Each structure stands twice: as structure tokens, then as C-alpha cells.
Amino acid sequence: MREAMDPWTFVVASYAIGVGATLGMVGWSLLTMRAAEKRRDESRKR
Q: What parts of the sequence cross the membrane (predicted)?
């Protein structure tokens, strides 16, 4: 009998990390974009 590690655990984990990191970057960029637009709008009012 051969005992080998199941690679699917690592495959699923890597996909979860990749999707989570991508969603985190999208959220971060949206927040940064909104803050930049707010600063731009405030500077135009002056």
C-alpha cells in the first residue's frame, strides 16, 4: 500500500487564498478610489 499526500487539500487552499486576496485587493482599491474622489471633489469646491 502506498501512502501519499492528497494534493487537493493544497489546491483548494491555494484557490481560497487567491480568491480571498483578490477580493481584498478589490475592496481596498474601491475604498481608496472613493477617498480620492472625495478629496478631488472637496478641492474643486475651494
A: 12-36
